[in-house]
Write a structure and sequence with these properties.
Layout lengths: L2 H25 L5 H19 L9 H24 L5 H8 L2 H13 L5 H18 L8 H23 L5 H23 L8 H25 L5 H8 L2 H12 L6 H18 L6 H8 L3
Helix pairs in contact: 1-4, 1-9, 1-10, 1-11, 2-8, 2-9, 3-7, 3-8, 4-7, 4-11, 5-7, 6-12, 8-9
Length: 295
């Protein structure tokens, strides 16, 4: 596969993920938070398991253990985001959750005790300023939903770091599929404890669940794994940084969400912080040619 085709696939994945906030908000109109998570990841797991059934024939105890860990972290990610969407907009959620790409290098720096790079320092300053403009209003207060989405971004950063460690010990595709199943399982358990589990009872609910399950989870995950083999991590990060832009676009087109001028400025600063944190700054032309295919 040519890099341009792989990057177009990654762009499609980014569009799917950008739309997920809108569909989660739609699903919450008739489903409980845990119920929504259970259905989304349960159906996604079944689809992915059917497509990649051959890869799941040689599962051992270690893979199951690692998958359960990843599934639990993924469950925490979407619990915070899903509950957060009750009191924030899809636009805010998209930009705040995208802070994951800032949290990842920050956590790695703190854990590995390395000196913080200048670009990370700049990214953090821009991100904090952007969050303030995006979420703080007079009288000064941050909504619970905004705070939960930031926590969700932190959990997702932990998920990415753990995946990076476990990828050396087990097949990543198998881990990815099984984690969907465990995330769905945890959703069902909590739904039975704290909610009354139901199946969608309206067309809108079914549309939201099926889009989240098929496109945003199962297909999105599969396309990501396939496409990332044919392009660089730097370009992948830059493409994924467009997710909050699509989240805001879907919120504007279908939920009629509007941001204030300060909100747009804040969103732009968050996006800029993400681009800086995921970009590499080659020092010579040879490196540029290798990384970006320049001639």
């Amino acid at each position: 596969m040519k890099p341009i085709r792989a990057e177009l696939l990654l762009l499609v994945v980014t569009i799917f993920w950008g739309s997920s906030y809108l569909f989660m908000k739609m699903g919450l109109d008739s489903l409980g938070e845990f119920n929504l998570i259970a259905l989304r990841f349960g159906i996604a797991f079944i689809l992915a398991a059917v497509i990649f059934s051959r890869r799941l024939r040689h599962i051992n105890l270690y893979v199951m253990k690692y998958s359960m860990l990843l599934g639990f972290i993924l469950f925490l990610v979407f619990v915070t985001i899903t509950f957060g969407l009750n009191t924030t907009t899809t636009s805010n959620a998209g930009f705040l959750v995208s802070l994951t790409v800032v949290f990842v290098p920050l956590i790695n720096t703190l854990i590995l005790k390395k000196k913080i790079e200048m670009k990370l320092t700049i990214s953090i300053i821009l991100a904090i300023t952007g969050i303030a403009l995006l979420t703080l209003h007079f009288p000064v207060a941050i909504t619970p939903g905004d705070l939960l989405c930031i926590i969700g971004a932190f959990f997702y950063a932990i998920h990415i770091i753990v995946v990076g460690q476990l990828a050396q010990k087990a097949d990543t595709l198998t881990l990815g599929i099984l984690q969907l199943g465990f995330a769905g399982l945890f959703g069902f358990i909590f739904a039975f404890i704290f909610e009354t589990p139901v199946i969608p009872n309206s067309t809108t609910s079914w549309v939201s669940i099926l889009v989240l399950s098929i496109f945003c989870s199962a297909v999105g995950f599969i396309l990501q794994v396939i496409a990332q083999k044919y392009t660089s991590p730097a370009r992948t990060g830059l493409i994924f940084s467009l997710e909050p832009v699509f989240a805001a676009l879907f919120g504007y087109l279908f939920a009629h969400e509007f941001m204030s001028i300060s909100g747009y400025i804040g969103a732009s600063l968050v996006l800029l912080s993400i681009i800086i944190s995921t970009s590499k700054f080659p020092s010579n032309r040879t490196t540029l040619e290798k990384e970006y295919g320049m001639k």
